[in-house]
Write a structure and sequence with these properties.
The longest helix has 31 residues. The chain has 16 helices and 38 strands. The protein is of the alpha+beta class and 696 residues long. Helix 6 packs parallel to helix 7. The radius of gyration is 28 Å and the shape is globular. The strands form 7 sheets. It has an 18-stranded antiparallel beta sheet that branches. Strands 33-34-35-38-36-37 form a 6-stranded antiparallel beta sheet.
């Protein structure tokens, strides 16, 4: 017997849903009923709620946003496939906190489609409170903004089902229960846990409120407020992106055909670098910084011995930087006379050895500095958020300090004048800026926001040579456009930190900071000196990245945990020299990529799937990357004698074995004795011939 078609029942359900959801004013009803222009987005009721359909346009593949009516939620779909879906159930997709309790939007109670904006209203789990949300579609994204009415929450949040979008990337340096970002950086993010409760424009971490997925969707939260971000935080498969504010929550959801296109959309919003702050020489050779070599146990004699040893062993570099603990007190900007009896002579000797000379500096002035009272009396310091009449005091790793207020022109001029006088007095060529330019415990200067201090810090640093170690500014468009080298947060000295340095650079590169360098080769963080194997493998890895940032001397160093000298053998020195030489030969190819980045914003060091989006295996590779379009780096990042290498589609030249391999291919048991770094050149890719000449 023939069964009746289900179609009449679906049409009836859609009709009943339409009648149950009030449209609003008669003007809105008219706007909704008017025919849409050909190719324009349109809205229509469905059995479960509403569908906002954006047709294909130009290079944009088109998409549909399904709006669930029973509990307000959004799912991006294309060709029957879900690309990104908000959370459902008790968590809720649009969530807010009142007091200690989290609430969320529930049943859709009304909607209108007017002038290209879909407006939704929904009940909530909080008595008397409603949610109003607006979706504004574009060809390759939609804008979402929403707010709570009827109560004043202290947090608003979005929650997503992580699996709905495949794998997740972005974020930047991630705090994790396993020691991130110092020793852990999950890649993709959903393969670990991210618990980042103070995700803020003022954070020391290199972060941006941008995430993207293997399904070619992305999320950018447009806020200058402190966020709390949890990705698989309770191993529950959810991503939570909360803002500590009752202001309307504004976000952009990108929908593209590839993850690279999502990245490009984001860069189109925040801006691409207008220049690179590093010189050609700084791309070609490493900078040597004293921090991991000595930490704060440094003085003039040790610095000169350090520089002399590097010079005598032919370990090349463009700069010797004196890091933390040269001042008599933090903020004085005067050398400690006991440790540095003749800093001018120290500077001259470093220059005579063929290096530039650099110095670590900070905006933070400790309370015991003779400059603190002067700065406080003249109003040059940020004010306390809770007590605006008093300077803001912050505790950091070197004591308690005030912070110079860069929004005050007089304070800025005073600080910059002292820096320039210091540099001219002692022959200092450049600076390493450390700490932050703002702290959330402080109040911004009147008329300014916390995010402004990222811009102000970037503008200040841009006046000086940063000597290839860059600076840690983020979140603001000025930071993106300034083109600073980005150095990572301090790493440990073990294999886990070496691996984290790679996945972290992939993360930083893909939130719009393409000129990346790892933490100091060999790590730091006050841990025992790196083993020979870790130090060599780190140098080999860094040689296949845009810049090299060095500290631990392959000649000898000090184990900070014991105070004893650690001497490496001649093979260590030779292999480190070889890594520097390889990087120096690659410099012309790398500089071509720098110029390409200035035109496009594309990262130089990038995940395989940016270049090979149809290669499913590429989305979970954690120990390989593309350096520009022609070079695939697969260095050994563990103490194993072999490794597996994944090669995407194409013809590849295996530099180590002098052979050609047709991909896709998986090379198992690839031998990696200490002197071997697997690297491959893609035939026919731009720059392949230049790269091959450098690597052979």
């Amino acid at each position: 017997m023939r069964r009746p078609s289900p179609r009449p029942r679906l049409l009836l359900a859609a009709l009943l849903l339409t009648l149950a959801l009030p449209v609003g004013t008669s003007a809105q009803t008219t706007a909704q009923a008017a025919p849409e222009p050909a190719g324009a987005p349109r809205v229509h009721p469905t059995a479960g709620g509403l569908a906002l359909t954006v047709p294909r346009s130009g290079n944009a593949p088109g998409y549909t946003v399904d709006v669930t009516a029973r509990q307000l939620a959004f799912a991006v779909r294309r060709s029957g496939r879900t690309l990104l879906a908000t959370a459902d159930g008790d968590t809720g997709s649009l969530r807010f906190r009142t007091g200690e309790d989290w609430q969320h939007a529930t049943r859709l109670t009304g909607w209108s489609w007017t002038k290209g904006v879909l407006t939704l209203t929904a009940a909530t789990t909080a008595p008397g409170a409603t949610v109003e949300a607006r979706l504004t579609p574009r060809a390759d994204r939609y804008l979402l903004d929403w707010q709570v009415r009827g109560t004043t929450p202290d947090r608003l949040g979005l929650a997503y089902d992580l699996k709905s979008a495949g794998h997740w990337y972005g974020h930047g340096e991630a705090q994790t229960p396993k020691g991130g970002p110092a020793t852990d950086q999950p890649w993709p993010l959903d393969t670990g846990q991210v618990v980042h409760p103070s995700f803020s424009p003022a954070s020391y971490y290199m972060i941006d409120p941008f995430w993207f997925t293997s399904s070619a969707t992305g999320l950018h939260v447009d806020t200058g407020q402190v966020m709390s971000v949890g990705i698989n935080e309770s191993e529950d498969g959810l991503g939570r992106f909360d803002i500590e504010s009752a202001q309307p929550y504004r976000a952009t959801v990108f929908v593209e055909s590839t993850a690279l296109e999502v990245y490009r959309d984001y860069v189109g919003v925040v801006g691409r670098p207008a220049k690179s702050d590093a010189t050609d020489a700084q791309y070609a050779r490493p900078v040597w910084n004293s921090w991991a070599q000595f930490y704060t146990h440094v003085d003039q004699a040790r610095m000169l011995d350090y520089a002399q040893d590097l010079h005598d062993h032919g370990v090349r570099g463009h700069t010797i930087q004196l890091d933390d603990k040269w001042e008599s007190n933090y903020g004085n900007m005067t050398f400690d006379e006991k440790a540095y009896p003749d800093p001018k002579a120290m500077s001259r000797r470093i220059h005579d050895l063929g290096f530039d000379f650099g110095l670590w500096v900070t905006l933070w002035i400790n309370l015991d500095s003779d400059q603190y009272r002067y700065a406080a009396d003249h109003g040059y310091l940020l004010r306390d958020r809770a007590h605006p009449d008093a300077p803001c005091r912050v505790t950091w790793w070197n004591g308690t300090a005030g912070i110079v207020d860069l929004a005050d022109p007089d304070a800025r001029a005073w600080y910059v004048g002292r820096l320039k006088n210091l540099m001219s007095s002692y022959g200092i060529d450049g600076l390493k800026f450390d700490t932050r330019f703002f702290d959330d415990r402080c109040a911004p200067s009147p008329g300014h926001k916390p995010t402004d201090y990222q811009r102000l810090g970037a503008e200040l640093a841009d006046e000086f040579d940063l000597q290839g170690v860059g600076i840690r500014v983020h979140w603001d468009t000025t930071a993106h456009r300034a083109g600073f080298v980005t150095r990572q947060v301090d790493k440990g000295t073990g294999w886990n930190s070496l691996r984290a340095s790679v996945t972290q650079n992939l993360s930083i590169s893909t939130i719009g900071y393409p000129f990346v360098t790892t933490d100091m080769i060999g790590g730091s963080s006050g841990q025992p000196a790196p083993s020979k194997q870790v130090l060599v493998r780190w140098a080999q890895s860094a040689a296949l990245q845009p810049l090299m940032y060095s500290s631990t001397s392959p000649v000898d160093t000090i184990d900070v945990t014991t105070g004893r000298k650690v001497t490496y053998d001649e093979e260590t020195v030779a292999l480190y020299r070889a890594a520097i030489a390889r990087h120096e030969r690659l410099a012309p190819y790398i500089l071509d990529q720098v110029r390409h980045t200035l035109r496009t914003g594309d990262p130089i060091m990038r995940p395989l799937f940016f270049d090979f989006p149809r290669d499913g295996a590429a989305y979970t590779v954690t120990d390989e990357w593309m350096l520009g379009p022609a070079v695939l780096a697969a260095p050994q990042l563990s103490d194993s004698p072999t490794r597996t290498v994944h090669l995407p589609a194409g013809d590849w030249y295996d530099v180590g074995h002098g052979r050609r391999i047709h991909g896709p291919a998986t090379l198992t048991g690839y031998a990696t004795p200490l002197g071997v770094t697997p690297v491959f050149v893609r035939d026919g890719a731009p720059g392949a011939a230049k790269a091959l000449r450098a690597l052979r």
